[in-house]
Amino acid sequence: MRTALAWSVLFLFVLTLFTGALVIVLKNKNALASVPSKATGFLGGPVREFEGESAALIGVLAYAGPREGEQNRFFIMDGSAVVGPSDPLSNLVEGSDGIKRYKVRRGDTLGGIAEEFNVTVETLRAANPGLASSLRVGQNLTILPVSGILYEVRGEDTLEEVASRYGTDVELIRRYNADYQKIFSTGSGSVILPYAKSIPGGLKTISALPSLKNYFAMPTVGWNWGELHDVNAVDIANKCGTAVYAAAEGLVIPDETLGDGTSGWNGGYGLFVLIEHPNGTKTRYAHLGSIDVKIGNYVYRGDKIGEIGNTGNTHGPTGCHLHFEVAGAKNPFAVK
To answer: Which helix (H) or strand (E) holds 233?
Structure first.
């Protein structure tokens, strides 16, 4: 008898809960049907009433009325559809000829930005004069669509002469500059010089460096193009896997901006080794396929430090070559 009474009480309790829940569902269903589609994001239109607050919303927000003096309201907003201040799209503006304006975010580095946009660190520096190694949040940067420089055309310039002077290709200039004819005919405006080998004023600075004859040995075997880059470097081409040697004795060190160079894009250098020499100069060996030394190793002239590869920003039939760069002295292997 008692058992039957207990089951009856339990049944009545469950039935009461179910009936209450059903009433709530029906009320909210009616409230939802009464809301115009323009105010409900999941019915095909933006939630206009809440646009000013949307950037602060995360995930899914649901609110059901009524409040005192208000009719029932119910809306759902998916935070993934909201572009907030931290969204990458909010700090990047596309300009003419693919040139972008980028606003620096917290945690950005020159190497990271260069890798994100597939250009070299030198390209970033050339397009943003006075750029320091440390960036400021909110700082605006000019980003070229390709590694190279942005050149200001002068009245006497011709397309062919500029291409020859900066070691780039006429067809590449045409491809990246839709208005190149107008710019050169008027002698006014800027053009992108893809893969340019030198920056205006850079060669003058390099020419003032001391000449240390016989201090540096040829770092590999191959075809030395001998054309000096703006960073005081030459390219020596050979098949990937060719041994690369230390040009002089010194300590293997990390790059202050790019790190140890053992992985990644590294501002276009790819894998690289940086050696600091006893006389204060430094040499960089870039685009390596493999590295045989570690940070802190002391190497001697002729020691193998890696192999030629095609990592980073390389182009050409195979891309296999050594970028040999000297800091603090003239590059003894520049012949052009």
So the answer is: strand 233-237
Q: How do residues 150-196 score in pLDDT, each as one tens digit?
A: 888 887 788 988 887 777 888 989 999 999 999 999 888 889 998 87
* 3-class secondary structure, 141: strand
CA-CA distances (angstroms) from residue 80 to 53, 294, 313? Answer: 14, 44, 35
This prediction has a pTM of: 0.50
Q: Are 250 and 313 found together in one domain? A: yes
Fill in the amino acid letter for 328. G
17 and 53: one domain?
A: yes
Sign of CA dihedral 104, 107, 109, 112: negative
CB atoms closer than 10 angstroms to residue 177: 24
DSSP per residue, 237-265: E--TT-EEE-SS-EEEE-BTTTBT-SSS-
User: Where in the sequence is the domain holding 315, given as residue range(s)?
Assistant: 202-327
